[in-house]
Amino acid sequence: MAGISDDELRNKTKEVSNTINDALKGIDDQIAAQHAEIDENPDMDVHQKEERFNKIDKLEEDRNDELEKVLMQVLPDAFAIVKETARRFKKNKKGTVNCLVSIRSTIKNDLPSAFFITSTYGFVPGTY
Prior knowledge:
Helix content is 63%, strand content 17%. By secondary structure, it is α+β, with helices and mostly antiparallel strands. The chain has one domain. It starts with 5 loop residues before the first helix and ends in a 6-residue tail after the last strand. Mean pLDDT is 80; it is low at 99-128.
């Protein structure tokens, strides 16, 4: 990745983000449809609502499983982006970064979480 421009590096980050979003789109649409059905039918029977919410819970579990798979798939690219970004930070005094940071949350079922960070950092020589 050392041979690509800053814009191409940013585009790589967008590609990773798009890969994740594309992999989860189907499940996210199903979850949204279930929520919409509940919202559109305020007179729905309690048992029917409970059935819908149970289906949403199952879909969210499936989404978390799929998210873990796709994060493992994009991990090499995400690592390469972060590594190249760090190399460029070291080399440049000012830069803009877009990167994917994948962490494992130990709070709930050890499921992965994804955070996209966009920041501009200005480095002043001698103030580290």
